Amino acid sequence: MISGKSVTQERPLNQPKGHWFQAGRLAFLALYLLTFITAFTWLVSNVREIGPDSRAVVLSFGAIDRVQDSGLLLAWPQPFEKVVILPAADRVIDRTVQALIRPEVANYTGLNSGMASDANAGVGYLLTGDAGVVQLGVHLYYKVTDPYAYVLQGKHVSFALDRLVERSAVLVSASRDLDTILVARPELVGASTEAAIKREKLRADLVQSINQGLAALAKEHASLGIRIARVDLQPSLPVETVDAFNAVLTASQLAKQTVAEANNKAATTRQKANQEADRLIQQANANASERVAKAHTDTATISRLAQLQQNNTDPGLLWRLYRQRIHTLLSQAGSVTTVDPSDDGKIILQGKQP
User: Fold this and answer.
1) Which residues is 140 bridged to in the sheet?
2) Whole-angstrom Cα distance, residue 71 to residue 155?
3) Alpha-carbon distance 70 to 88, whole Å?
4) How far apart are CA 230 and CA 144, in angstroms?
5) Which pLDDT belongs to residue 104?
């Protein structure tokens, strides 16, 4: 029988104490697991694979410890060791030098805007050896030769490289004329081989000058750890002179075209004149030959008579010819007056008859 007194049931010892206890236990397990994962991730954070076009510089407590080429890198996590990824030794890095690019705002700061400034007027311009002005767009291709120096310089590499390129560009452009740097006249394109050699030498001299500056920094224990492999140049004229040069180019092209047309017309006229001269000479030679032949024909009789008279082979020839031809001559005369050559009493006066 069940009495009226309440009966208390005892809980088993292994039964959960409540929902809050279970939630706390799960949170602890999750936190423990998260901590373990975080610790493991931190421990293997510097264990990575280096690609074939890269290499790693390992810094141990801020000091350079070793250089790891492509492959699996095993390094302690930060702050014990720090890994800096660099390009491989044979990888070429390209960079556009911003120091030689004229900013757009400089083109609008002048007398027109009331903000005239000598500093802004010369930004981005280089002076050539013949007192010309040119703009150079320089695109560099370089390799990292000293990883330790490259990592030590860090962000200062780009600024120092821009300064070296700017200095070298000033020196190289000042030693050349404008036509060597920029083909400003079309008539110079005819000597394309010589012009190409000069422009190639311009790039080679710029590379050599930059590398000499890098070598000088290395001697001062401030090496950038790089070496210039190649330079691409894009020369251009200032905005203010483009219209003037275009006008000069147009005038030069028109002048060449006009000269060519004049040469063609002169050649055609000369050819026609030569043909006409040849025709006149041939015609004159033919007329001369004809006249000479006619003269020989007309004088053949007289020449024959002169020869006979000279040889005196026929003494009575003249009298015989006189008697043969005097009748013909006298028959054509209106009147004939005969005078005895031995009678000097009669005088013949010229004039009208009475």
Assistant:
1) 95, 231
2) 26
3) 8
4) 13
5) 66
Q: What is the CA radius of gyration of the chain?
A: 57
Residues 6+ apart with CB under 8 A from 235: 134, 135, 136, 137, 181, 182
Spatial contact of 70 and 50, defined as CB atoms under 8 Å apart: yes
Task: State the Cα–Cα distance between residues 163 and 213, nearest whole angstrom.
Answer: 10
Range of lowest pLDDT (61-65, 167-171, 189-193, 319-323): 189-193
d(CA 109, CA 178): 26
The pair of structure tokens assigned to 155 is 């962000």
For residue 185, give every residue at least 6 positions away whose Cβ sits within 8 Å of its Cβ, in sequence order, or none.
Answer: 179, 248, 249, 252
Which two three-digit tokens encode residue 87?
């390009």
By C-alpha distance, which of 219, 223, 123, 206 is closest to 168?
Answer: 206
Q: Could you tell me if 59 and 65 are in contact, meaning their C-beta atoms sit under 8 angstroms apart?
A: yes
- Most trustworthy range by pLDDT among 121-125, 201-205, 235-239, 343-347: 201-205
Contact predicate 125/174, CB 8 Å: no
Q: What is the pTM of this model?
A: 0.57
Which pair of tokens denotes residue 18?
Answer: 């409540």
Are residues 160 and 214 in contact, defined by beta-carbon separation less than 8 angstroms? no
Q: Where are the strands (E) in the chain, listed by range? A: 48-50, 54-60, 63-68, 71-73, 81-87, 93-96, 126-127, 133-144, 226-236
Helical segments of 175-238, H only: 178-181, 192-219
pLDDT computed for residue 192 by the predictor: 61
pLDDT digits (tens, 9 = 90+) for 260-271: 999 999 999 999
Nearby residues of 149 by Cβ (< 8 Å), 6 or more positions away = 218, 223, 224, 225
The C-alpha atoms of residue 257 and residue 251 are separated, in whole angstroms, by: 10
**DSSP H or E run through 109:** none
